Amino acid sequence: xxxxxxxxxxxxxxxxxxxxxxxxxxxxxxxxxxxxxxxxxxxxxxxxxxxxxxxxxxxxxxxxxxxxxxxxxxxxxxxxxxxxxxxxxxxxxxxxxxxxxxxxxxxxxxxxxxxxxxxxxxxxxxxxxxxxxxxxxxxxxxxxxxxxxxxxxxxxxxxxxxxxxxxxxxxxxxxxxxxxxxxxxxxxxxxxxxxxxxxxxxxxxxxxxxxxxxxxxxxxxxxxxxxxxxxxxxxxxxxxxxxxxxxxxxxxxxxxxxxxxxxxxxxxxxxxxxxxxxxxxxxxxxxxxxxxxxxxxxxxxxxxxxxxxxxxxxxxxxxxxxxxxxxxxxxxxxxxxxxxxxxxxxxxxxxxxxxxxxxxxxxxxxxxxxxxxxxxxxxxxxxx
Length: 384
Fold this sequence. Notes:
Blueprint: H1 2-18, E1 22-26, E2 29-33, E3 47-51, E4 54-55, E5 57-66, E6 73-74, E7 82-86, E8 92-97, E9 105-117, E10 120-131, E11 137-147, E12 155-159, E13 168-172, E14 177-183, E15 187-192, H2 195-202, E16 218-221, E17 223-233, E18 238-247, E19 256-262, E20 274-276, E21 285-291, E22 300-304, E23 307-312, E24 316-320, E25 324-327, E26 337-342, E27 353-361, E28 369-371, E29 374-378, E30 382-383
């Protein structure tokens, strides 16, 4: 019996650890998932978004309904189906579901926090749904937000003047501002707590809740909101849904910040050096980072405005024609070089792409030169 209890306690501890709260941090800002929904019908998914020492958030979670459902369901931790992975720099967390509630689709929720000033920050979130079935997946997605701006429940909300209808600004009685925004949504709704949340989980008229594009202007009251998407995802295909919460900083662009790689890197002593794909979020300082370098060697970055893949023997492949170059710090003992890049808060940057390649001396490489593949940096405010 004692052995059974010991094994049971160990198993329970492991399960709890897998579902424990997680905090991501960038500068003065942190986002914490303090709890997760333990079942589809549970209204949990509580969070803190703390900027400059003040918590502005009560709840931030995602829900879904598929064809035939009458109510919304929370992405949840039942049966150990959710796993949590934080990035090496602890600025990003990814929650993953291999088969959501055994319904034939997987989900990947990534949340990255960006500090944009002493009292401002953005939580940029993206939910990717992958249809693993043989038939099209008809799905409805809900992004639910409960903000307590400046730790108060007496908030007002209005339409954000420079953004499409349904994106909005929230303000407390002392003037602290926040923004709730989403990309390509079908409907929205703003209402006093807990009305929106209750309708997600109870449905309306025997059907999943469809937000009514109502609620603005709002207040003064306890603010909550919902963004809503309708999608049909073909078999073996994916679709991404994006939202963000901003404190003290109106995001500058409606475009998506993205970082992708192309071309072919060249191996050195520690293998092929690789870019860490941190996207250039407008208004934030973003770490430009290369891994698998040679300790003590300082990479030179080629910066261009076009892609190429031109062999330059024996040195490797040129992945962009450089307009200019700059030098990153020498690789440290962990074979990493990181250079913080401040991204100006300019709306005109949205959608602009630059192309980068890092080259460095490495005695273990052919011709004593190693290099990365190409990195495409596309500037924006939504996360990919």
